[in-house]
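Quick one: structure for this chain?
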Amino acid sequence: MILSLISYAFAATVAGVHFPESTVIEEHQVVLNGAGLREKYWIDIYAAALYLPQPSKDAVSIIGQDTPKRIHIHFIYHRVTKDQMIETLDENFSRNPNINELTIASIKQTFDWMEDFKKGDEIIFDYAPESGTTIYVKGKEKGTIKGKDFMEAIYTIYLGPKPASAALKESMLRH
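Got it. Here's what it folds into:
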């Protein structure tokens, strides 16, 4: 991974995927906190980046903060099917036993928004306290889930005590 430091903001390139030093979520600027690689069985699946209002290494605080934030996923593997994506999301949500029934229903709704992915495709999870978590798949807005609980469930997948990938979590908290 190549990192260029510019004050406290930085851009990152992971497996050939460039993540800019900052972006905007509903008029709120967020900065790149860290970026890394999701591997499974020694296969590079996707590069992912975490954006926050201010850099932080505190995963618990990041998950709980009711502030704008983004997780940006860029697929680098040649093919991930919709079924594989749903299975992975479901498996990772099940690691968080404190999810309430309303949030579980919202999670299942997002399964319909998933598609087959190929190299270059993206998923973006944007959270804004005013509106909720907006999910973009392949550049198209799929929908918004209101409330903080859903956002916390998504961010727990990546930053919680049992993340999908410990190495990716560490990279996203690298700033």
